[in-house]
């Protein structure tokens, strides 16, 4: 080898290039949370360029930390979660953390079993959209530093996407298009997000003085949406809110099988804005979640939890994205 990589790279050579002490370089890898963000990122950038590979085993012995965090999701096949996983991995890499992915397959007791399996292997845990009751979740987590994504659990740091304003805007949009009878296709009973979204839609419908028919609960899946389609047809609603985009895509398929068109016969709104929402025909009007910010905030909150900081709740607003699945109320339908 020639050039920069021909010599053995040490923390001293990195320190010299960055203009900092060797101890600062060491802390940038062993205790990144106590190093200034700009300094830490500069040290890591130089280390990558020079090909420096810190010894994680030695670092673990020195710090008592594994350099690994767990990420528990309810269903990795749901298209909302892969972008969240990527965002969390990206933010974790800045801390030089590895991420251990855990999938509970939409089974609440699996969450408990998975946490117990990895507790000794990770320094902390991010739990996305958990299905376990609060008391069970708290008992499972115990003293393990943990952050909850898209759910609020008392005493635990959390980051949630607040869709209330965007769902209100979606309702107003449909109202302006002439719709007066709406259907709410509820998501899983165990889902905190499903309850929050339902409450926001109910509040808007009450304030707007429109009819709202609640249907479900339905699974947060394509199959759940197909099962919801006959119920929607029987409700006489001209517009519907689906719990999420995956369910909405199933509704599209179910309506098409029944010979009904979106948006000519029914308007449909999803939630989350997964890639499928943009590529399906018709493209879905939906609420866009700030997934990248959810991931980076989760890692920042986990850093704080590992330092022993007080728990705090962060709310990030979703935004309405108007696409082709919403249109004017069908001809012949009287709007009040």
UniProtKB/TrEMBL annotation:
It comes from the Bacteria. CDD domains: HTH_LacI, PBP1_LacI_sugar_binding-like. GO terms for molecular function: DNA-binding transcription factor activity; transcription cis-regulatory region binding. The lineage of its organism: Bacteria, Bacillati, Actinomycetota, Actinomycetes, Jiangellales. It comes from Jiangella alba. Coiled coil: none annotated. InterPro entries: HTH_LacI, LacI/GalR-like_sensor, Lambda_DNA-bd_dom_sf, Peripla_BP_I. Keywords: DNA-binding, Transcription, Transcription regulation. This is Transcriptional regulator, LacI family. Residues 9-63 form the HTH lacI-type domain.
């Amino acid at each position: 080898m020639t050039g920069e990589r021909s010599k053995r790279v040490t923390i001293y050579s990195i320190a010299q290039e960055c203009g900092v002490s060797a101890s600062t370089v060491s802390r940038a890898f062993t205790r990144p949370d106590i190093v200034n963000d700009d300094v830490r990122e500069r040290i890591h950038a130089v280390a990558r360029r020079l090909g420096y590979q810190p010894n994680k085993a030695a670092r673990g012995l020195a710090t008592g930390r594994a350099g690994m965090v767990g990420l528990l999701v309810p269903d990795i096949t749901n298209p909302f979660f892969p972008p969240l996983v990527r965002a969390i991995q990206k933010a974790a890499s800045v801390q030089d953390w590895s991420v251990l992915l855990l999938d509970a397959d939409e089974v609440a007791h699996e969450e408990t079993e998975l946490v117990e399996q990895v507790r000794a292997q990770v320094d902390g845990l991010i739990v996305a959209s958990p299905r376990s009751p609060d008391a069970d979740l708290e008992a499972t987590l115990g003293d393990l530093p943990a952050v909850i994504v898209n759910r609020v659990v008392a005493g635990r740091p959390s980051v949630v996407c607040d869709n209330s304003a965007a769902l209100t805007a979606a309702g107003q949009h449909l109202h302006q298009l002439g719709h007066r009878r709406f259907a709410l296709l509820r998501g899983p009973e165990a889902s905190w997000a499903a309850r929050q979204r339902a409450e926001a839609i109910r509040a808007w419908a009450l304030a707007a003085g429109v009819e709202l028919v609640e249907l479900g609960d339905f699974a947060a899946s394509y199959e759940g949406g197909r099962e919801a389609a006959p119920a929607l047809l029987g409700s006489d609603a001209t517009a519907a809110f689906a719990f999420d985009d995956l369910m909405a895509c199933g509704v599209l398929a179910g309506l098409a099988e029944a010979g009904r068109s979106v948006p000519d016969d029914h308007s449909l709104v999803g939630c989350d804005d997964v890639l499928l929402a943009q590529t399906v025909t018709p493209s879905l009007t939906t609420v866009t979640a700030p997934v990248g910010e959810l991931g980076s905030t989760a890692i920042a909150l986990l850093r704080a939890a590992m330092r022993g900081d007080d728990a705090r709740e962060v709310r990030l607003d979703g935004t309405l994205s108007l696409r082709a699945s919403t249109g004017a109320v069908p001809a012949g339908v009287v709007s009040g």
